[in-house]
Amino acid sequence: MEERGNISIHTENIFPIIKKFLYSDHEIFLRELVSNAVDATQKIKRLSSIGEYKGELGDLKVVVKVDKDARTITISDRGIGMTAEEIKKYINQIAFSGAAEFVERYKEAGEQNQIIGQFGLGFYSAFMVADRVEIVTKSYKEDTVPAHWTCDGSTEFAIVDARKEERGTNVILNVASDSEEFLEKERIRTILNKYCKFLPVEVEFEGEVINNPNPIWTKQPSELTEEDYKKFYNELYPFSEAPLFWIHLNVDYPFNLTGILYFPKIKNDFELQRNKIQLYSRQVFITDEVKDVVPEFLMLLHGVIDSPDIPLNVSRSFLQADSSVKKINTYITKKVADKLTEIFKKDRATFENNWDDINVFVKYGMLSDEKFYEKAKDFVLLQNTEGKYYTLEEYKNLTQANQTDKNGQLTLLYTTDVDKQHAFVEAAHNRGYDVLKLDTLIDSHFIGMLEQKLEKTTLKRVDSDTIDKLIEKDELKESVLSDTEKEDLKKIYEQAINNQNMHVQVEPLSPDDAPVVITLPEFMRRMKDMSRTGGGGMMFMGNMPDTYNVAINANHSINQRILKAKDDNKERIARQAFDLALLSQNMLSGSALTAFVKRSVDLIDKE
């Protein structure tokens, strides 16, 4: 036996789902109803512009009113209105969007993207807060009778003739007992400020227009001044410090996208959490969670993105990832790179002044996006310990002659803390070497990327080895000590230090270098840095004990003195020299520091 038919969906079953679960946040009802009112207003303006409506437009404001005593919220417009038949078509047939039909009918007239609605479900969000909803409406069409529609949230409704003089629609919500918070005027004002702040039609509440219908992202950059951009930033984020600069987005192919992205001065984590990029669709606020639209490395930017082409879920509350989102993401990346290139070329001084605030964006972008790297490699800056800035090419030219080792490898030296590593920086400067400052959280990853990208180039932290080993030359350093004396000196230090994580080696350094140099090998230090910043596969390194190299300067007079000292004094002097090296690395504390101070006093007293 075979039987075919249609699955029956009963509205009495689906209506509670729409009413209670379609929208994750009940306050969305006001956004949807005000957006519908704006749609109706945009439609009458359109019909007037093409000559299909010849009457006076009059005041086109959308008005929101709260009557706490009557327990009602009313949203009124002077848009196209509806007839009783249109109510049956657009309201009683769930998910039949009047906006979609209007756009299709009048798309030849242009500017159809100004119509906001797309699913035809927004009206039913009213029932999340109301136990009865009324519509009183009069169509713009001549000789039509005003209509009054009423529904209590069930599948039953009533339509009767109404008395209404003016064209337009009033939606009246009789607020339910579990939603009384929405009868508080400040609650309504907060929702309007959140979702309706930039709607394209004036919205009035409590006698005051609460929105800016013509935000600057809807205008051409040529129409705007620097002051306009700063004023708008303050409108978005009151009390925030002025931004460094901004990027105006304006594209109509292969997708529609407008907006303004600001580069902020980063002061603290609170501001980063509070001032997020806001996503709009036809000037209706959607969300400030834009991780799919905006590349991750630009999530610290502030501003607005508006696109009718960003796919939203049916409640217009969340994004739906698809190919157009990826295209928008790629476009934003390109625009940011182009803007930074433009600023760098036109005003390098300003670019350098802003570098401390933008270098995290740039370095993160280079790490995460190959196309961004290709553009950014020409404007990313390296700062040395003297505060001078260089591009990658400029710095290569500066250091290549003096910092290329015997194998033809260019070695770039850097410090992560100028004060703590000052002795090593000074030793490098004494050799005529330049030292970079790479002291941000992202720099451990940035260093690894540079080594992958730059040909025959390595980076070494200035305290990761003795200066002669950091950049090995063909020069042969002679030791004033014999092999036997070097072995004796090594044993004295090993006994004085008594620490298996300190690997002692006697080396022929310059007499002007320190008597003892303690270094954490570059590989070990870099792995630990990456483990602290969440480097993949390196977490175990954070639990391993630090293993240091201890270079004993065979050509320093103190070490020659140790060999000549009495047996009971050799280790004491060696320990003092070792503790001095620890002190220079900020590695001496607790009882070891106390012992060092006492020993120092004793040695001075005996002199």
Provide a compact summary of the structure:
The chain has 607 residues and is an alpha+beta fold. It contains 20 helices and 21 strands. 38% of the residues lie in helices and 18% in strands.
Written account of the structure:
By secondary structure, the chain is an alpha+beta fold. The protein has 4 domains: 13-209, Heat Shock Protein 90; 216-343, Ribosomal Protein S5, domain 2 (2-Layer Sandwich); 380-470, Rossmann fold, CATH 3.40.50.11260; 483-606, Four Helix Bundle (Hemerythrin (Met), subunit A), CATH 1.20.120. 38% of the residues lie in helices and 18% in strands. The chain contains 20 helices and 21 strands. The strands form 5 sheets. The protein has an 8-stranded mixed sheet, with helices on one face. The chain is elongated.
CATH fold category name of the largest domain? Heat Shock Protein 90
The CATH superfamily name of the largest domain is Histidine kinase-like ATPase, C-terminal domain
Query: Helices and strands: which structural class?
Result: alpha+beta
Low-confidence stretches: 5-10, 95-100, 109-120, 313-320, 536-540
Q: Alpha-carbon distance between the termini?
A: 114 Å
* Radius of gyration, taken over Cα atoms and rounded to an integer in Å: 36 Å
Tell the overall outline: elongated
* Chain-averaged pLDDT: 85
Strand % is: 15-25%
Main beta-sheet annotation: 8 strands, mixed
By DSSP, the count of extended strands is 21
Strand order within the widest sheet?
A: 5-4-3-6-2-1-7-8
Number of domains in the coordinates?
4
Q: Do you know the CATH architecture of the largest domain?
A: 2-Layer Sandwich
Count of helices? 20
Would you state the CATH class of the largest domain? Alpha Beta
How helix-rich are the residues, as a percent range?
A: 25-40%
